[in-house]
Amino acid sequence: MKVGMVTASVSHSGGGIHEVVRRSALELHRRGSSVSVFGLSDESFEQDRDTWKPVAVNVFRNRGYKPFGYAPDLLPALCSAAPDVLHNHGLWMYPSVASARWSKRTQRPYIISAHGMLDPWAIAHSYWKKKIAGVMYEHRHLSNAACLHALCSSEAGAIRGYGLSNPLCVIPSGVDLPPQDVASRARQEQEKMILFLGRLHPKKGLLNLLMAWRLLHSDRISALVDWKLSIAGWDQGSHEADLRKYCAEHGLQSSVQFVGPKFGAEKDSLLRSASAFVLPSFSEGLPVSVLEAWAYGLPVAMTRECNLPQGFEVGAAVCIDTTAPAIARGLADIMKMSEAERSRMGGRGRQLVERQFSWASYAEQMLSVYSWMSGAAVRPDCVSMV
């Protein structure tokens, strides 16, 4: 089977979506599918090009208004590649237009992974821009998809709530597991550190996280004195400046570290050195960062909006809401634990990832959906018609 994948970014600048596309493409290739990836060029792609091998990656220059991602060469390239099915990862940009036009010209099907972009918080953010985009092209793109893909049941509910009645599959993304000794290594000899890893964007709840950190320090709890908060990730929309300003205004510079984007060996080292992980997001699809934290045996504090209720059910995560007091309480619960208690909590997270979030399972289920879409197989159990 020839599979095409379209995404806005084919570099680490694309965050978690980039990693889902890259790892799923590699896994599909390993299973014998012919996979071609199509994306917009950016300043980071050359640095990441080799991480896609042996999958073919085609990049196209963005012309005009950058947030729209207009790339006139994308549609001819899709038609020339002639995939049996096309998988579009994302919404609200020119790749949506190209995917819909490709399907109309070739009479071949496409599937859309929304990656949380139809969740209520995401829709409300830049609402009027999305309203206009919806009328101009996105509603048509979504409505004509042969299948829609949700990463979890909560996202499936948001997609249905948006008013879409297409066939819908629910398939969680995967994560790579580090060696077991990495995940179980004792951290008591290192400085105790709470880690956030991801985009520095308002939807991640980082300002409220800093407010929570201030509350913890104002309470002067002795068990929390030796802890640091490390914020790792790439800035979006100059949000980092707002966060740094808050730290400066409230004297948090000595206990809050902004360490910038971390990838590859640097990210591995950061996850090894962390004692716990926090994600106080207002909205997520399925956060790869939480799965990675569990893979490294880290206990997690996260909101229900992270769409990983399994973590609460097995005792791998502390549930917080998005308010500063609730975040502070959740962090305090983890920080007051013994190292052994945190290790057991993180271990339950790693076991959860091993059971439910492998790339092999993702690729197997997605291939069954592709085969059904192309008419080569019956509808798989993961696809719902209602």
Break the fold down into its secondary structure elements and pairings:
Elements: E1 2-9, H1 15-30, E2 34-40, H2 45-48, E3 56-60, H3 74-81, E4 85-89, H4 94-106, E5 110-113, H5 120-124, H6 127-143, E6 147-150, H7 153-161, E7 168-170, H8 180-184, E8 192-197, H9 206-218, E9 227-232, H10 239-249, E10 256-260, H11 264-273, E11 276-279, H12 288-295, E12 300-303, H13 309-313, E13 317-320, H14 324-335, H15 339-356, H16 359-373, E14 383-384
Helix pairs in contact: 1-16, 3-4, 4-6, 9-14, 12-15
Walk me through this protein's architecture.
- The chain is globular and about 65 Å long.
- The strands form 2 sheets. An 8-stranded mixed beta sheet has the order 3-2-1-4-5-6-7-14, sandwiched between helices.
- Helix content is 44%, strand content 17%.
- The protein has 16 helices and 14 strands.
- Residues 183-189 have low confidence and may be disordered.
- The chain has 2 domains: 2-173 and 358-384, Rossmann fold; 180-356, 3-Layer(aba) Sandwich (Rossmann fold).
- It is of the alpha/beta class and 386 residues long.
Q: What's the quick description here?
A:
The protein has helices at residues 15-30, 45-48, 74-81, 94-106, 120-124, 127-143, 153-161, 180-184, 206-218, 239-249, 264-273, 288-295, 309-313, 324-335, 339-356, 359-373; strands spanning 2-9, 34-40, 56-60, 85-89, 110-113, 147-150, 168-170, 192-197, 227-232, 256-260, 276-279, 300-303, 317-320, 383-384. The chain is 44% helix and 17% strand.
